[in-house]
Amino acid sequence: MLTIYSDDHHLHHGRCELIDGQLMPCFEMPSRADHILQRVQTRELGPVQAPQDFGRDPILRVHSAAYLDFFEGAWARWAEQGLDGDLMPYTWPARTLRAIVPASLHGQLGYYSFDGGAPITAGTWRAAYSAAQVALTAQAAIQNGAPSAFALCRPPGHHAAGDLMGGYCYLNNAAIAAQAFLDQGGKKVAILDVDYHHGNGTQSIFYERNDVLFTSIHGHPEAEFPFFLGYEDELGEGPGAGFNFNYPLAAGSAWERWSAALELACGEIEGYDADVLVVSLGVDTFKNDPISQFKLDSPDYLRMGERIARLGKPTLFVMEGGYAVEEIGINAVNVLEGFESAR
Q: For a Cys-Cys bond, which of 39, 59, 162, 181 suits 186, CB 3.0-4.6 Å?
């Protein structure tokens, strides 16, 4: 399997995130992608290539121009003020406030964020832009006939909406790739999100559309981030009604319960008969993940890949979460090896 990877991800290294009432070292760190790359190479999964640069146009198919302009220019505006700490929001336009774009940098940061978990550093824009190009390059490989590809993206993307960052995510790599498939002649794309946390950004981007089927297996939002999306009754709206399926599970869920949800998601994907499958590959479902509560073990990821392969679709894997850094390479590559063995 072809892997697309960029060293630019090292340019994004947040100093801290706001979690549990404290500013803590970021769980989303450069070593995550480094461990995955090392495992890809050790297991001889296949060639590793650098991304092409497709520019901003395919990103603009998913994200608003105003949001991209803000994100790309935020650090320079911060530095002009003589400040060098991570740029993080502290005010958000909550329900009783107006959804207005202020002139202030901090006000705009709150407007374009939904949490305090996406710090902007000097290299964040470049890292996120390159991650989107990683996804687009892997998408292009499948568009040109490859049966599968792995976009080793960092930072991740599935929490990013059309004009919102949050949850370690800035640009929605999976959504950008899915839209590229459609723009290049595809009629229907299925997305399977297996990250522990609901892909709220991906859901919101495609919620009113029927050319993208979104399915997600995740920790129940009654108790888990992002809290405000990911419930079973969210089935899509307008033309998208009946094309959004969430499978929230209780903390402590292990393979038996998790795989039952996977069967339900796969059933929807099979019925949808998409041209291509995009997998938002999070492995924070692992039993030792420091910020998640499922109990999957490393061999389970082989079985996950095998089941995905049986869908028989050209498949793009896009890396999302996973914060048990020592095991992240084993678990992510197990999915890919399981997929390859069963294809």
A: 181
pTM: 0.98
Domain count across the chain: 1
- Cα torsion 336, 61, 86, 291: sign: negative
Domain range for 175: 2-342
**pLDDT, tens only, 223-267:** 999 999 999 999 999 999 999 999 999 999 999 999 999 999 999
Q: Tokens 């909550």 label which residue?
A: 94
Reported as a single tens digit per residue, the pLDDT across 87-141 is 999 999 999 999 999 999 999 999 999 999 999 999 999 999 999 999 999 999 9
Active-site choice (9, 158, 159, 220) = 159
For residue 97, the cross-strand partners are none
Identify the CATH number of the domain in which residue 86 sits. Answer: 3.40.800.20
* Peptide bond preceding 226 in cis form (omega within 30 of 0): yes
The CA-based angle 107-111-116, given to 5 degrees, is: 90
- Based on the residue annotation, tell me whether 159 is a catalytic residue of this protein: yes
Helix or strand run (H / E) with residue 256: helix 255-272
Cβ atoms of 5 and 33 closer than 8 Å: yes
